Amino acid sequence: MFMIATRGCPYDCSYCFNHAYRELYAGKGKAVRSRSVENVIQEALELKQRYRPEIILFQDDTFILSQDWVLEFSKEYKDRVGIPFHCHFRANLVTEEIAGALHDAGCISIKMAIECIDDHVRNDILRRNLSFEELDRACAIVKKSGIKLVTQNILGTPGSSLDIDLATLRFSMKHRPSYAYATLLQAYPKTWICDYAKKHGYLEQDAEDYPASFFDRSMLNIPDKRKIERLRTLFALAVEFHFLYPLLRFLVRLPIEHISTLLDKLWRGYCIRHRIFPYSITIREYFHTIKVFLKTRWY
């Protein structure tokens, strides 16, 4: 069951729509708006009464923008709702107090974007404005709190390389997340990264053939493009099964996309079902879910 407690995001990541969102609604109130804790709790209670969900997924871009809000929410949610939940963190906002309070309230897993471990690519190209120390510390805090860590990583970024993407993979290996998402950079129209990619020759000026999913392929003109696309399909598997890492430079040279994509989907589905969003399901529903999941191109 999905919920949202906050609308908008104050950050300016180059690949995201939020800057355009803020421009679209300029002069019409706050670009970032948070519902009151009581309002969120009331909705959660209504969902609990009507649908009896086993888990609630908070889809806010960043759930922990306000420490005071999070601490109040954690207390009220634990006392009055008590349903396991999932939410999204941003590394520079993570503290032991916040992670501990959310875990105590029933937070079982969180997503946190690493994107790229190279400082130049992460901060100058992707405009994440996060230090390595902040990422490293936040991952350690989440793991220590008992919340399951899910990392998000972007491969094939302008200015990046196969070596840098492998270094990003090693960072996730170090922190052993419950799952490591890997996607391919998509320079969507009217984002800053799109203008940058066109200006520096990574993207054709009249580009229109955008992939249906950021899991599929890269449309950028980048070195080692096919190898990086193959690495994406092997990324999560290598983070979990470390013996694969020494083989990656060899494997990405082979035309194994069909096999590795299938294995990647099966592993992602397993982790979503059993680690990130665990819930009960009948055998019949289980196999139907697998069938549908293998057809989807997004989650």
Textual characterization of the structure:
- With 299 residues, this protein is of the alpha/beta class.
- The chain has a single domain, classed as Aldolase class I (TIM Barrel, Alpha-Beta Barrel), CATH 3.20.20.70.
- The protein is built from twelve helices and eight strands.
- The strands form two sheets. The protein has a six-stranded parallel β-sheet with strand order 1-4-5-6-7-8, with helices on both faces. Strands 2-3 form a two-stranded antiparallel ribbon.
- α4 (96-105) links the parallel β5 (85-89) and β6 (107-115).
- The radius of gyration is 20 Å and the shape is globular.
- The relative contact order is 0.10.
- The model has no long low-confidence stretch (mean pLDDT 94).
Topology diagram in text:
Layout: E1 2-3, E2 6-7, H1 18-24, E3 33-34, H2 37-51, E4 56-58, H3 67-80, E5 85-89, H4 96-105, E6 107-115, H5 119-125, H6 132-145, E7 148-155, H7 162-175, E8 179-184, H8 192-199, H9 225-240, H10 248-251, H11 257-276, H12 283-295
